Fold each of these.
Amino acid sequence: MKEMVDVIAVVVTHNRKRLLLRCLRAIFSQTSKVTKVIVVDNASSDGTKDFIFSASEFSDEEKQRMLWTALEKNLGGSGGFSVGVERAIAQKPDFLWLMDDDGFPSENCLSKLLKLSSPFSFISPVVLSDKDKSSLSFPLRIRGSLKILENLADVRSLESNVIEGVVAPFNGTLISSDLIAKIGYPDKNFFIWGDEVDYTERARAAGAKIFTVSNSLYFHPKGQNVGNPMFFGLIRFNEPNSRIKLYCYCRNNVYNLRRYNGITKAALFSIKVLWYYTLTKFNREGLSIAICGLIDGITGNFKNHQKFLSSV
């Protein structure tokens, strides 16, 4: 790796200006500096841009390094990352550093990632809760094992500082431009959720070096309604908290499972969803949305999420 590395951060935001401020402040506080920060504003209506550029936290030089891309309509996280990655690649950096507005990196997060990076990297930090900073926001399952890492102590008990084959993508994920040239941009059709899974699997198929760097830390809110027990307490279900999230969760999950894991796993996921909304926690509206999402995921229909956008 050359001595001076050109890294462009890509941050997607929508109506979360204070969280975006926290994120950008952490990016500009890195021990390894980014060249630019591309902010993709998904049609925010809360005065996000004015709020950020009037903030005293940033110097004039830092504001000049922010490249603001304002979208006319909300394209969701997937559309935002697709636009952001395309714009960043046009700047010809060595690496892109991808994240949402509600997370933020520790001070040496990027430095730790760069030390283990290579020309074909798709690597991420450990993602911890932004509240207690000891539990993982997204538990990691050791590849080829039943072991699940749920807190920082679990991570630190490992013999290696690299967790092979697994990442919590788009949460401070460092991706090489050489890899992006091979796999293209994130798929904007997913709208929210699932695009990061698809992108990871495309990277894996291209031979990317995929792993989590255990001493690189990133902070993110824990998901709500995660791990609700079902099927006599033997399995758990992550219940989305809005109509659009439920629809995209069902559609995008079953689409990815069918494409990358086979029809059996897609069928098992569908049964799990239907069981939850009929036998575990009966919800007529939830069941209707879930069925719509499952059918569209199986058939590859990425147009119907528009009807649920009022709940974004």
Amino acid sequence: MKGTKRSAVILVALVAVFLGAVGYGQSQSPASSAAAGSGQLRQVAYLKASNPTEDANFGSGGTLTGNAGNSAAISGDGNTIAIGAPHESSSAKGINGNQNDHSLFASGAVYVFRRTGNTWAQQAYVKASNPGQDDNFGSTVALSSDGNTMAVAAYYESSAATGINGNQNDRSIPQAGAVYVFTRTGNTWSQQAYVKASNTGKAGGGDAFSDGDQFGYSMSLSDDGNTLAVGAIGEDSAATGINGDQADDSAMGSGAAYVFTRRGGAWSQQAYVKSSKTPPNAALFGYSIGVSGNGNTLVVGEYDADRGKGAL
């Protein structure tokens, strides 16, 4: 599939999500939903964005490798699908804004589809509350088991804010990264939190790939939606273990992971996680990440551990 110009998302009942490989120069990408029955697959839906445009990368992700990573998610009950289009170019903000605008290249969008009976329909067109050019909102998406909580990463977002619900209008650190949490009540979606790292970094820091830490390069959500894990491959601290020195900048691109929890609708950072050994430059800890269904176990991938061998 390497080098293909179109990508697809195949959803297999309640079992797994498979993403088609994406090459360079992608254009419009469809998503197909397939159900399993009697040991065979059958296609039940063909999903497209409500505003398809060339190179929007609907369903094809926006990560470093160009692969269709986690830009599509399905709820545990199989009735809600979220699909990212990180190169969608509207300047709209929030929920169900102007889809016909094309003034903000690669600001990104997410499309939420819901199944009623056997029929799929688009429920929401979702944008960041602070869309910016090249932010790649929708590069990674995650859904809770019931489909009522959704996390969306924009790993090229450029605010210097830290923590929860900080200054979204700042654009001083290119590729700092951000995660947005949305919740659904009935059929209505709204943004619940704007999530940033506790040590967003600094512009021109000389990271492995960019100015910023690329917070949101990887992301995972627990089944109940109350635990969020986020990877930042460009983070620069030489700290090790849990809650070490976040102010250190001596290990460029060593990477970090952050764990956030929600209580009573309010989010807070629970842990700052680094590799257990002193990281080398460009270790890319946080390249992949996963949190268990109950939110009590975290796994973090390090892409360049021991010079390209990788580690978990």
Amino acid sequence: MDKTCLYTKTAKWCGRVLSKDGVAYDPEKIRALAHMPPPTTAGELQQFLCAAGWMRSSLVDFARISQPLQARLDNELAGTRRTKRVAANISIELTPLEVESFQAVKELLEHAATLAFPDPEGTICLFSDASNDGWSIIVTLVKEWSKSTAAKISSMISCTA
């Protein structure tokens, strides 16, 4: 296997594909996860969640969508050492909600976002949100501002004690 590639337009590195457009995950790795059957052991579920979690920076709303699976894994491994060996010996059968979550995560993987490189000519925008259950941020890059408004909705919130 040749370890040196000069003047290439794309390069695979550590499970990622780097190109002029940005950084994406290797389609072969995504395909392997997207075609994985539902897990039958806690070990298989742990492996799936770890692999998908590794790609979470490209998966919009990953934490919320995978929450039923993560809760099940946490429940199954409660009071154990949480190792792969222990998890492999715990049989599970997913509930309909967990199967739905599993399929939704697989669909997320197939539509993973390509992370763009910052453009010094663009404007970087940071959007954040938080609640009692979690938090998230999205960073976008706007190359051209449009003066037209597609829609505008606003509302005043007043707090009374």
